[in-house]
Design brief:
CATH superfamily: NAD(P)-binding Rossmann-like Domain
Number of strands: 7
Strand content: 15-25%
Largest sheet: 7 strands, mixed
CATH class: Alpha Beta
Order of helices and strands: HEHEEEEHEHEH
Radius of gyration: 14 Å
Shape: globular
CATH architecture: 3-Layer(aba) Sandwich
Distance between the termini: 17 Å
Strand order of the largest sheet: 3-4-2-1-5-6-7
């Protein structure tokens, strides 16, 4: 599947959890992703294992603790935590999971990818949702640079959910 198609399918979801928003004084990547998704009409749920709120937004300790479940999950955690988030996403009934890949460390490892795919989650493990949902100039440029350098392939393997 072309990455643009996969991104469009993911961004067509309405209920999306973001795991990895920072509760600290400095907002993290997850905070920015959650804000952008919220501003583009998505119902966004923050997942943080210890914070009850981040700013004025309620947090849930796990993805599967979100009432009513979610359709998709963005993982902006460390790779160390990604497998657990993938397991929670599957239990929450998610169809898609997007492991963030920006300029810093990636938010996944082989174990997390295998967990997500084995659970039947359609998986994106390249780039960032902000590169595709009405991207600002910085994310549009980053998408072009990542594509030119090969960090974002033209197509990705997204097996059909079993």
């Amino acid at each position: 599947m072309r990455i643009e198609e996969a991104a469009a399918e993911f961004l067509a979801l309405r209920r999306i959890a973001v795991a990895g928003a920072s509760a600290g004084k400095q907002p993290g990547v997850g905070n920015g992703i959650a804000d952008r998704l919220r501003n583009t009409g998505h119902e966004v749920f923050l997942v943080h294992p210890r914070a009850e709120r981040i700013g004025d937004v309620e947090c849930h300790p796990t993805v599967d603790a979100i009432p009513g479940g979610v359709e998709g999950v963005v993982v902006a955690t460390s790779a160390h935590n990604a497998r657990v988030v993938a397991e929670q996403a599957a239990r929450a009934g998610a169809r898609w999971i997007w492991f963030h890949q920006g300029t810093g460390p990636v938010s996944f490892d082989d174990e997390a990818l295998e967990t997500a795919r084995s659970a039947g989650l359609k998986t994106i493990a390249v780039g960032c949702p902000m590169m595709y949902c009405e991207p600002d100039i910085a994310h549009r440029c980053m998408r072009g640079l990542f594509r030119a350098s090969g960090r974002i392939p033209r197509s990705i393997d997204v097996p059909a959910r079993t």
